[in-house]
Amino acid sequence: MTIKVTKPAPPSDDKRWKLVDVTMRRNGYYGHALIETLHSVQDAFGYLDDVAMQYVAQSLGLPLSRVYGVATFYHLFTLKPMGKHTCVVCTGTACYIKGAGQLLDAIYDRFGVRVGETTPDKQLSVMGARCLGACGLAPAAVLDGAWLANQRPEQLVKRIEEVINDEH
Amino acid sequence: MNIDELRDVAEKVREEAAKCSHCLRVCTAAGCQSSGAGAVVEGLKAAVGDNPQVQVKSVGCMGLCSGGPLVEVESREGGSKVMYQKVTPGDASEIVESLGGRPVERLVCPTDIPFFASQQKIVLENSGVIDPEEIDDYIAADGYQALVTSLTEMQPDDVLREVTRSGLRGRGGGGYPTGLKWSTVAKMPAEQKFVVCNADEGDPGAFMDRGVLESDPHRVLEGMAIAAYAVGASRGYIYIRAEYPLAIERLKTAIRQAGRRRLLGLNICETRFSFDVEIRLGAGAFVCGEETALMASVEGLRGQPRPRPPYPAQEGLWGYPTLINNVETFGNVPSIIRHGGEWFAGIGTENSKGTKIFALAGRIQHTGLIEVPMGIPLREIVHTIGGGIPEGRTFKAVQTGGPSGGCIPESHLDVSVDYDNLRQVGSIMGSGGMIVMDDTSSMVDVARYFMDFCASESCGKCVPCRVGTHEMHGLLDKIARGQGTAADLALLEELCEVVQATSLCGLGQTAPNPVLSTLRYFRHEYEQLLRPSDDEKPASGGQVVTEAKS
After folding, report:
1. Quick check: is B279 in a domain?
2. Do you find a cis peptide bond into A11, omega within 30 degrees of 0?
3. Which positions ≥6 away from A98 have C-beta within 8 Å?
4. Which residue of A98, A109, B144, B187 is 20 to 30 Å from B316, comparing CA positions?
5. Contact, B209 vs B223, CB < 8 A?
């Protein structure tokens, strides 16, 4: 006897759910594709909310606790929406030795946010990375996906201001 | 594909290349890309226009990251090469105009300096030479020859024998003999086996695997396929950090191309051997570099380690025998099969054969990727290849092995680099990160930094690691702020021993290493920061509280 499990419908008619569905289908809806699926949710929506985790759990036939457990275990997954712009400051050893701490202090002094926080106006999220593997360019940061090498504190703050002000 | 077809492809690429008078190679690995190599490629292509004599090529890492973006100009006649550093798109037309004449002096990066001259390249032999997104380029550099030879002319046992004879040891840090590991998996009677490539390069300050995968992804695939043939596996996974988008992209391209050329997939070389490779993304957990945690993560679970035995070679992914090797280990395999185990065993020291890639970073003149023979003195790496310490500062220590390793001071700089020697001086080979520190770095601060790392990366499964790293970080923080006493230092040392002896996996067992090694060589820095304990202070009429506790 085979048990037919119907796949749940996406939580909304947002087109981005299609991307998530594609990932799950490509992996045959196997539970071991959980991390892959969560990556695609985060790529599409920017973070993992309750609705998304429930949908993934049902689709892959996993208990919600398992999905929540994995989502909170790995540093790369975030359960909170990010700001419009993100600045990732590398805090790997080479960057640390060469002054990543000063970069973070300068960001805090100017924007009032520390690692893992988002400004109240949802403009900027600051994240720390364990190592971006660009140790030759230390201290390094990534602003909205663009690499910034050999940063000085005032230089980085200025660059962030420019990116935020460009929008207005 | 058989060996003749492979040679045909190689011949075609070489003929094509011979038509050009000059080849401009631009490093487009992540380091140079973040300093603008993409625009340099565009600029050079625009400057060359439709001149068929000049070829512009995106290649992998040339090593000297601090000079990026790097461009190498090779002229076919005479084969002379010139390297340019810190190239901008604005320099493109000048470079193109200089072809055939005098090189652009102001951009020239001397390649006779020890940074380039003292290296010996095996795994990185194609880095900075071939286009990592073109399988034919790899084939033209003798790529996939080793795989085809293994499948058509060798038995799995012959492959095992060559690898064992080479003396290759695991490049992920442990240094376990690769031949022995392969033989264990090969001996397991099972209908399904797996080969896993560990590309979860989590050590802060290490970027060797990223360099290899971005510069020569096919080499790793070929190594994996040979391993699969030798141990009898038919499926492979590459577990790679999500933080390396470019490496992931290039790997995906490589897998697709190899599949199309029938060098991966069903019945490779018309033999009965089939092998498929899939990519699995990490999600930012250092502990997933530990093999049992890595397997849990590949299965879609939280990356928590489990006790060994059973070893993955006996019971791995989904309970099947699984071979797990590091990127660099697989990268050595094609060369070993092509040139023979004897050849490989002739390089390096008695117990550590071959070469090792190191990522040089920190307070050092030349930062970047280097590949050197095992046994080279550490001093040569730091002062000759690395060019010493910039800004007139003095050398203090070099940190190897990341959060599991230790700091090596000036007095031990003459140690020759191999697995056993580094262990003797209180550090480890690790995966190959080398961070140089000058006299401005506080060793207590460095120890605190690594303990913070370990505390936040501890998976939480076993108590010694979960609580111990947290407590040790608290003590280090207290000492670094000048609040610690001699009793705190004693407690810290005791905790180091406990955590080392009782943790479940490598992360916890090695977490105290940075503290222990800095205590061993820089104890005075800790002691300088201690404040006198309360009972040593002149009595101010109050009770001594500590006695009441006992």
Report:
1. yes
2. no
3. A138, A139, B362, B363
4. B144
5. no
**Cα B111 from Cα B366, distance rounded (Å):** 13
Interface touch B437/A97, C-beta < 8 Å: yes
Q: What is the DSSP letter of B207?
A: -
Residues B9 and B43 in one domain: yes
Tell me the residues of chain B between 5 and 34 that have a Cβ less than 8 Å away from chain A.
Answer: 30-31, 33-34
3-state secondary structure (DSSP) of residue A94 = helix
Question: Looking at the domain assignment, is residue A8 inside a domain?
Answer: no
User: Do both B290 and B394 map to the same domain?
Assistant: no
What is the mean pLDDT of each successive set of 10 residues along chain B, which is 550 residues long? 91 91 93 89 94 93 90 87 94 92 92 93 96 96 96 96 97 92 96 96 89 97 98 97 92 97 94 96 92 95 94 95 97 97 96 95 92 96 95 94 92 94 91 92 94 94 96 97 96 97 95 96 96 66 43
Angstroms from B392 CA to nearest CA on chain A: 16
Question: Can you say how many angstroms the Cα of residue B383 is from the centroid of all Cα atoms in its chain?
Answer: 21
Touching A: B residues 187-246, CB under 8 Å: 201-207, 210, 242-244
Q: How far is A44 from chain B (nearest CA, A)?
A: 15
Calculate how close chain B gets to A103, using CA atoms only, in Å.
16
Specify the 3-state DSSP secondary structure of B406: strand
CB atoms within 10 A of CB A29: 15
Does this complex have an ipTM over 0.95? no
Estimate the crossing angle of helix B217-231 against helix B178-187, to 10 degrees: 50
The CATH number given to whatever domain includes residue A148 is 3.40.30.10
Using alpha carbons, select from B494, B3, B47 the residue that is nearest to residue B263. B3
Distance CA B219, CA B234 (A): 18
B contacts of A33 (beta carbons < 8 Å): 300
Q: Where residue B175 sits, what CATH number does that domain have?
A: 3.40.50.11540
Contact (CB<8Å) B303/A130:
no
Does the beta carbon of B405 lie under 8 angstroms from any beta carbon of chain A? Answer: no
For residue B345, give every residue at least 6 positions away whose Cβ sits within 8 Å of its Cβ, in sequence order, or none. Answer: B165, B166, B167, B353
Is residue B69 left, alpha or beta, with left meaning phi > 0 and alpha meaning psi from -120 to 50?
beta
**Residue B65 touches chain A, beta carbons under 8 Å:** yes
Whole-prediction pTM: 0.93
**Considering only CA atoms, which of A37, A35, A40, A49 is closest in space to residue A16?**
A40
Q: Closest to B31 (Cβ–Cβ): which among A97, A136, A148?
A: A136
For A109, counting Cβ atoms within 10 Å of its Cβ (0-12 exposed, 13-18 middle, 19+ buried), the class is exposed
B357 CB-contact burial (10 Å; exposed 0-12 / middle 13-18 / buried 19+): buried
Q: Are B292 and B312 in contact (CB under 8 A)?
A: yes
Closest Cα partner for A31 from A67, A73, A77, A78? A67
Query: What size, in residues, is chain A?
Result: 168
Looking at B481-512, list the stretches that DSSP marks H as alpha helix, in order from N- to C-terminal side. Answer: 486-502, 506-510
Alpha helices per DSSP H over B3-50: 3-18, 30-34, 37-48
Full domain range(s) for residue A124: 85-166
Report cis status (omega within 30 of 0) of the bond before B69.
yes
Length of chain B: 550
Mutate: best of A68, A135, A137, A159, partner B, most B CBs <10 A:
A135
